[in-house]
Design goal:
The structure is a homodimer of 161-residue chains. The first copy, chain A, is mainly alpha-helical and 161 residues long. In chain A, helix 3 packs across helix 4 and helix 5 runs antiparallel to helix 6. Chain A starts with a strand and ends with a helix. Helix content of chain A is 58%, strand content 5%. A three-stranded antiparallel β-sheet of chain A has the order 1-3-2. Chain A folds into two domains: 64 residues, Multidrug-efflux Transporter Regulator, Chain: A, Domain 2; 81 residues, no CATH class. Chains A and B meet through helix 3, helix 4, helix 5, helix 6 and helix 7 of A and helix 3, helix 4, helix 5, helix 6 and helix 7 of B. The first copy, chain A, binds a DNA duplex (30 and 30 nucleotides) through helix 2.
Chain lengths: 161, 161
DNA sequence: ATACAACTTGGAGCCGACTCCAAGTCAAAC
DNA sequence: GTTTGACTTGGAGTCGGCTCCAAGTTGTAT
């Protein structure tokens, strides 16, 4: 079986990242310079698609493009989790993400409280809400949740154009 | 007990949102025009602080400012979850957030795989990773996680300045 | 009275992340 | 052979979200 190759258009389709954006990522060297066919057209293969998907996923977590660089390094086929520095970065990212999940959970709490109220019943709900947005340092937790698919941002970003 | 009032500086301290940004939010009417003292200085009270905290929390979930408006409406003391339209928006936001959590979980999965490898063992890990970024529509799940505090973005945004 | 701090305003500027454009190349289809 | 379509390039423009600035006001401390 020969390795299959993709055009930038196919890469865009598969990853949900626009052609322009893929070129942009190459321009800022978030992606390595793609191989070119004789006519200069970019060629992508499986692992390039994977890398773009990874960027897309990181993007959805709100990570700035610049912050992705070390992260993507850990993904490169070459030198992997051999470097303790990378491992530390990964761990720190993991923590950040867990904290972000907490923020999200606070919003879900907020929504659930709102939804649970047939009526506000002001005094009562105000109290609870105040607590919802207070710092919850004491509580530890955060057990793994399951995996579904992306889309929070896309719900907004796919609107334009 | 008289209601306590806060200056913009205190509001900023309590919410972690800069004075400039609070003024900016008022300018774009994400916050109602704050009351002024005789000298024109802004005055904030408990519920204003709460609203700013809510914005801050929504911001951490990556929600664009414009998307917050209907959300904040649901938070206003007046008309609450009486309007079915608002309820729908809340529910839809809740879904978005759950999806975002899924994205985050994918990244955590990715990190955990990386961390778990003493060595990459290429063939093997490539396989797993491909799966991690594929669509996981089948799996349902998502049980509530606990509440801690924010900070993913802050980890980056607090760097500047 | 004068200096300082804490605010006010409108507007300009900045940065990240695209997004679009014009001009050009190339290959296949008619 | 010329038109069509999928690409290439560099660079300009856009948009969201701040962030900074200058000029002005007020209140307190010396």
């Amino acid at each position: 079986m020969e390795e299959q190759m993709f055009t930038i258009k196919q890469a865009a389709e598969q990853t949900g990242i626009s052609e322009d954006t893929i070129r942009f990522y190459e321009k800022i060297m978030l992606l390595p310079r793609a191989e070119r066919k004789k006519n200069g057209h970019r060629v992508y293969r499986k692992e390039d698609i994977y890398r773009i998907k990874l960027i897309s996923c990181l993007k959805k977590t709100g990570m700035p493009l610049e912050a992705m660089r070390p992260f993507l390094a850990a993904s490169a086929d070459t030198a992997s989790t051999e470097y303790p520095e990378l491992v530390d970065q990964l761990k720190s990212h993991r923590e950040n993400i867990m904290n972000q999940v907490s923020s999200l959970q606070q919003i879900v709490d907020f929504i659930d409280i709102r939804l649970a109220e047939g009526r506000p019943q002001k005094e009562y709900s105000d109290q609870i809400q105040d607590e919802v947005l207070e710092e919850h340092k004491e509580k530890e937790i955060i057990k793994p949740i399951s995996v579904v698919e992306l889309s929070y941002f896309s719900a907004y970003t796919k609107m334009d154009k």
